[in-house]
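During the reporting period the student researcher (J.K.) took over the structure-prediction task from the postdoctoral fellow and processed the backlog of single-chain submissions. One of the processed entries is reproduced below for the supervisory committee.
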Amino acid sequence: MRSIYLDYNATTPLAPAAQEAMLPYLADRFADPSSQHAPGRAVGEAIEDARVRIADTLGAEADEIVFTSGATESCNFALRGLIEPAIRAGEPVHLIVSAVDHAAVQGPARFLARLGAELTVVPADSRGLVDPQAVHDAMCASTRLVSIVHANDEVGAVQPIAEIAAVCRGEGVLLHTDAAQTLGKRRLDVEELGVDLMSLSSHKAYGPKGVGALYVRRGVGVEPQIWGDRQELGQRAGTPNVAGVVGFAAAAALADESREASEERMRQLRKKLADRLLADAPDAVVYGPGDDQRLGGTLCVALPGVGASDLLTAAPDVCASPCAGGYGDAGAISPTLKAIGAGPPEACGAIRLSVGWYTDEADVDAAADGLLEGWERLRG
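J.K. obtained the following structure tokens:
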């Protein structure tokens, strides 16, 4: 039996159009984009064209886009670049994040707390959603930044970012969102969302790995985290990943163009997969919100009586992730599931199944068969 890839929230295959766009910059168009000679200028123009394309996807201006190595760097850049200068200046500074944010936000937030920032982690409800009122209630006179993920990668909960942004604007507080999971799945218009900073990842949206971007609204001062020459508008030193940047822009444009049709198709495939599993395992637990507040292709489910790693080992043709895979041993519960009130034994068996562009109904049926057969063997 062939492998069935259901781990699109972890990473996506490279779109052929993105690969084609990259190839010249892996071969003859190799010049340093900072060089003043003709080959260098041509490569520099390719980066600026990519910057415009990413900006257009977000409804932003080109000079508001800084290319990075990915969303993890972008999140660190946003949080540390805004909070550390205040800490060094001896100012009281308060940072708010959510309990369902990715480690790329929670990690630097905890680091900043060790440096002296006050940190508040606002809760999520049982669906994985953050209440804008809870964000408002957590604010104080020294609140400098709120960072709330746009969509959680495990349960697929899409946060009410526009409502949270309205709360932040009313208090004069900046808002960052980690949109690594939503590029190509939700409309990302920075004006409609009202965000001041947004982190993006290429490889979550059919682009190459090792490249991403940080949107920084004009007038928002973020201290660089990588110092040296003045590449990337003076915000990030170092010769850029030219091929990656070009491929990222091509993939992002393609993902955005196909967004609505793709998301509806993903929703139908995810629903079919959930229905198949629940029909034969009616005691299975599905985590996350309803369809209107969930990423179409994300299913977080626990089949009763088995551990996540054991289940995926028993169904080796299904390529998916245990929700606690990056957080500990087989009996661990991921921080997201803890945050929404899930507990043992069910949550220890939670797996994340995420469909994508190249998933079809035959894949869904085969995956359901494989998981159910593995589950029955383990329980038998």
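The committee noted the following: The chain has a mean pLDDT of 95.
J.K. will present the remaining backlog at the next meeting.
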